[in-house]
Amino acid sequence: YVGQTKRLVKTRIAEHRNQINSCTQKNSVITEHRLQHKHDFDWEGVQILDNEPCYFRRLTSEMLFIRRQTAGLN
Fold it and tell me: Domain of life here (predicted)?
């Protein structure tokens, strides 16, 4: 999964993990995948692919990394 955030990675991972463990109406792509396929993610293996403070450049970088994926959730 490729996704951009301006928050700390550990904060974003905690949000994903908390959403998986809670019952909410609106689920993220990660939560939906986890619920449908019944497997967990390698939370310790998360990698930062790029670090870009500019929002629009971050969106561009995210798009390029998503297109490079051969198998992913995006």
Answer: Eukaryota
